[in-house]
Specification:
Elements: H1 2-18, H2 22-38, H3 43-57, H4 62-71, H5 80-87, H6 91-100, H7 106-114, H8 118-125, H9 132-141, H10 144-152, H11 160-169, H12 174-181, H13 188-197, H14 200-209, H15 214-221, H16 232-238, H17 242-251, H18 257-265, H19 269-280, H20 284-292, H21 296-305, H22 313-329, H23 335-348, H24 355-367, H25 373-378
Helix pairs in contact: 1-2, 2-4, 4-6, 6-8, 7-8, 7-9, 8-10, 9-11, 10-12, 11-13, 13-14, 16-18, 17-19, 18-19, 19-20, 19-21, 20-21, 22-23, 23-24
Length: about 375
């Protein structure tokens, strides 16, 4: 097979030399490059192939150089000097090489970025791997299109500092902020800055996908100017440190009866327990015993100690009783299914909740495609 390829390569070289027009020579160059790439070359063969590539890179015909650039754009056969020469060529030749060739060093790529061509910056930003130093220069000096491509490339090694630079440089660019927001991993500080700047849709994605600090969640939930705010029930339920989250909410005066009732009605019992413990200044274990294992008066005692409004006690009582009934029924429901059933059954009891809380709970019920219209009507 190797001998056959070698003979074929010799034929293609002669064809390339004797070709009468650019089209024929480009076709010959394409076939020659393809066969060199496929051949199992030893050290001498590789050196000979690279000599041929240097000749092709210097060929006067654009079609010949383009045929080589496209055919070998991702090949490790192209040496660094040839890759650099092609990168300085016409866009039709340079862009495939810039976007894919492994021959470039980080310094080469930085040089290409700093040359200022927007399309070439985009080609660098779209590479299968963008090293940190290159990504940093793109973040600091790249055009908007290039930075957007960089942010959308999860294989670009963007440091927290570089991400901050991108967000500050393009804080008014919806496209760039969206690309950053949809990265697989984001530092907490960057996430919080994006939440302040992004559109409602992107903000919702950030809140649901990336963890945010309790104080940020509370600030955003209370920020009246925001059209879309954080749902503190969801944030608390998803918190890996529920006691700390509750303490933070209490310190910001956001740990209200309304919030606890909303959480309880949606089946977030742990949130309710930790909230009571925080408000009553008692350990969680004691609060758990008062809610679940201290007879009919236990809940009332911990409720009163937490300073919650007496007029809402029956609504909380209904929530706890509903949770116990559904838990006893079991049935292998998923957490989401349990929460949905909890909310539906709670609303059918016509609990004496405030209008805002009822509107919130019914809205959450409607957000689930499996919600039953009859249940909503009954509520």
């Amino acid at each position: 097979m190797t001998a056959y390829r070698a003979r074929l390569t010799e034929v293609d070289i002669r064809r390339l030399v004797k070709a009468a027009d650019d089209d024929e020579r480009a076709e010959a160059a394409h076939k020659l490059c393809r066969n060199m790439e496929r051949a199992e070359l030893d050290e001498a063969g590789r050196a000979a192939a690279q000599k041929i590539l240097r000749l092709l890179a210097a060929d006067a015909a654009e079609l010949v150089r383009r045929a080589m650039a496209i055919t070998l754009k991702a090949s490790d056969l192209i040496p660094n000097d040839v890759a650099r020469r092609l990168a300085a060529d016409l866009d039709s030749i340079a862009l495939p090489i810039i976007a894919a060739s492994p021959a470039f060093s980080d310094e080469d790529l930085i040089e290409i970025v700093r040359a200022g061509s927007a399309v070439r910056q985009v080609a660098v930003a779209n590479r299968a791997r963008v090293p940190r130093d290159v990504a940093t220069v793109l973040a600091e000096e790249g055009c908007e299109l290039a930075v957007r491509a960089l942010a959308a490339n999860d294989n670009a090694d963007l440091s927290e500092s570089a991400l901050n630079t991108v967000v500050e440089r393009f804080h008014d660019s919806h496209d760039v902020l969206t690309a950053v927001s949809y990265r697989q991993v984001l530092p907490l500080h960057v996430t919080e800055r994006l939440i302040e700047l992004a559109s409602d849709t992107v903000r919702e994605h950030l809140i649901n996908r990336h963890a945010i600090a309790p104080e940020t969640a509370i600030r955003l939930a209370q920020y009246a100017r925001e059209r879309a705010t954080v749902d503190l029930v969801d944030q608390a339920a998803a918190s890996p440190d529920l006691p700390a989250f509750m303490a933070q909410m209490n310190s910001r005066k956001a740990l209200t009866a309304s919030l606890l009732l909303r959480g309880l009605a949606r089946g977030h019992m742990a949130m309710f327990e930790h909230g009571l413990a925080e408000l009553a200044h008692t350990p969680h274990q004691r609060a758990w015993l008062m809610v679940h294992d201290a007879g009919p008066l236990g809940l009332k005692a911990i409720y009163d100690r937490a300073g919650l409004p007496p007029r809402l006690f029956q609504a909380f009582r209904a929530g706890v009783d509903t949770w116990r009934t559904l838990t006893a029924e079991g049935g292998g429901a998923s957490p989401e299914e349990f929460r949905q059933r909890m909310l539906e059954r709670f609303l059918t009891q016509r609990p004496g909740v405030q209008r805002d809380d009822l509107a919130y709970l019914m809205e959450r019920l409607d957000q689930n495609p499996s919600a039953h219209a009859a249940t909503v009507s009954a509520a």
